[in-house]
Specification:
The complex is a heterodimer. By secondary structure, chain A is mainly β. Chain A has strands at residues 4-7, 10-13, 19-25, 31-37, 44-51, 54-57, 65-66, 76-78, 87-94, 104-105, 109-113. Classes of the chains: A mainly beta, B mainly beta.
Amino acid sequence: EADIYQTPRYLVIGTGKKITLECSQTMGHDKMYWYQQDPGMELHLIHYSYGVNSTEKGDLSSESTVSRIRTEHFPLTLESARPSHTSQYLCASSEYGRGAGELFFGEGSRLTVL
Amino acid sequence: AQSVTQLGSHVSVSEGALVLLRCNYSSSVPPYLFWYVQYPNQGLQLLLKYTSAATLVKGINGFEAEFKKSETSFHLTKPSAHMSDAAEYFCAVSGSGGTSYGKLTFGQGTILTVHP
């Protein structure tokens, strides 16, 4: 069982609010990722990190930002939420090397912006 | 550049029947290929992976997949479906070297329904 946790699981919030989605893992993985998932659509990588103080944007442009101050923690922030940000956000982590393709996912944070 | 196409957004089978979920990939480098499963209200879980060793890969819960380079395919099969197999299945590809590790490109998913 994967030891990666996301909070909140569900969030309904009004337009213009600032939100932070939390992601923590206890596996000591250096690599962490945020994917965005819409119903019936493929997952899109929006952010990733190779380690502390390393963050990169993924393939899908996103207005969100991330930080990696500690190995185990990779929060995602939206400064001003909009209805277009409504989606499910999945956090994942992996090892370096040949194990890197095996991602361990959290249960997701489903965000609804009214 | 890499991409994944899953043929069929919904597949329905009877309990005990063969499960076949199709995945074709495109990759400019030797690929690593993965199948993940997502149960309702949960994150994704790795079913199996191909990383250039044996072309027939066995995974958890009785699933297996065969890498066919000539057909650029990585179809997922299970000889006998069980009700607990009902879920959404995602095929994914990554590059096999350097910073490509872990940066998966996912297909759009196939929802598997199993009828009694």
